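FW: tagging you since you asked about this chain on Friday. Here's the raw sequence from the shared folder, copied in full. Didn't touch anything.
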Amino acid sequence: MKASVPFRSSGVPFLSRTTFLQSRTELTVPQKVFFSRAKHAESPIDGSFSLRLVPPTLLAAEKEEAKAVLTLFLKKQGLSNAVAARTINKSDAFVDHLVSRLHSVHKSRYLVGRELTTLEIRDALIPYLETLLDEYGQILVDVVENFPDPPVKEKSEENVQKQPVTENSVASVSPSTPTVDSRKLKALARVSDVTPTGKLPSHIVYLLELGMELEAIRVVIRKFPAFAYYSLEGKIRPVVEFLLDLGVPKEDIPTILTKRPQLCGISLTENLIPTMAFLEELGVDKKQWAKVIYRFPPLLTYSRQKLKATVDFLYEMGLSADNVSKVLTRCPNIISYSVEDKLRPTADYFRSLNVDVALLLHRAPQTFGLSIEGNLKPVTEFFLERGYSLGDVATMISRYGALYTFSLPENLMPKWEFFLTMVYPKSELIKFPQYFGYSLEDRIKPRYETMRNCGVQFPHRRKLPIAWRNMSTAAQSFNGNLKKALAGLRRINLEGLRWRVFDAKGQVLGRLASQISTVVQGKDKPTYTPNRDEGDMCIVINAKDVCVTGRKMTDKFYRWHTGYIGHLKERSLKDQMVKDPTEVIRKAVLRMLPRNKLRDDRDRKLRIFADSEHPFGDRPLEPYLMPARQVREMRPRARRAMIRAQKKAEQQEQATTNTRKGKKREEAEAELSA
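HL: got it, structure written out here
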């Protein structure tokens, strides 16, 4: 049964609605009607724009854009990459028709000499292609390939359903290599010296001046052929200057263009700047745009619906507005993850482990880009097989969210094998999972060997009861000072913290304070973050035996005001050491800490004692090894006086020798004159 296609004055310019039976598909369109509709669509009477007024370079670029839009549309309909490429190579006439329609829709833009952006081209062509899909359905590919000729097709659906899928049929679908790469070869020819003048296009020369290698430009064009047809003044230069104004270093521009060349095809005033303003409303720090764009250039090419969907998911997981801002700034590539296919299943998986999803998203958002089957489950099974419970794994994840980002065979397994050679119990990894973040060869092995050679006693589970029994003895020696030593300890979350012991005996005050401030801030950890308090507990003993250089003991003064008129007090370092030597070290450390809200929390982790006794014998203490001194030896006043006396004696002896030599010279001269 044949279905006729009547002529209509509205709707699709060159195609019209068809009807066909479900049992047998047979389409025959009169060629005159089909051709007349195509001719009518390109007629200047219909308001179309003449292609002669468009420069050849711009016309070629628009054809590439139209091909890209058509390819994307076909892929969304379920076609594979090979089938879509074959269809594009057979539809040159249809692509020309799309360009002609583009000129008809945006006639006013061309009259004022303005180029269309990639998003404007998509907005003009995609609704038109959707209309064709509604009209022709399954035979849209035949319509595109046979334009402007009518598609004639007779196939039995029963035969199609019963036809077996063989290797030959699959092989016949794949196009030949020359036809697939023809568009890429045309684009690559623009960056080669094949022109009669022997010069490269102006935009290629501009990219080379920016520091982009010619081979890197070819790689970009192979991935995105339309980039070869972008104009310098209309698209590339404005985007590059805009990035430079944002603070992006010039040497980072080639990397950004290599990652996302489509940025040059987006309008600044209508797309890029409004998208940035929208992201700033969602929480992106406007001062960090240079870092954000360098980390993830495709961020500015996503639609607002995609951006808002991801942000809504973050709020749904329980993140605050400040935390959402930090996540988008530190890990902008989370926008690229699908909410339903990636983020939500990952969140459900961590919930099954009783992990705080909001805390994990805030600390390690990159974890949500990992595969559940390929990355997350193998790491979980790795710890379960080694005797840890699900609760232990959840605790380790909460304390160190980046744990799942490490490679299982290259990172976790070797460090686990070395951990077994140490005398630590397995529970130590629950307290300090950051162990897996250190380098095995550069950090773990050398430090472990150094501590063992120094005779440091490592904590062992059999030693813990002895420490508990010694607790009462240690407390008895702190009858008057125990309350001060334990003050504020309940306000500190001690889970996962190490107890570091510093022996101040013979140490220089400034050098000791700098090491303590590093540990109490957590700067010695790979997970250090300035806005979080992750430092360890610091116990300083023998504060009365700390040393200073020079004459600081008498020349250094501490001054404070009581609040009353004329009550400016001062006390020398020597007097302070007699009154309370612990305050000397405390003041030195506090003056090395940042003056922010975390300062008081870090001060609570600092416990200083004048002698070697302290009430924390029940804790797994770790002695801190001070680095070797690289400064001159301290010289007390008596030693300096002795050195001055020796120098004075040497000078006097030298003067006496010179006097004797002078007398002998005078006597010799007198004899000669006589």
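FW: Residues 80 and 267 are 30 Å apart (CA to CA).
HL: agreed, and The longest helix spans residues 637-673.
FW: great, closing this out.
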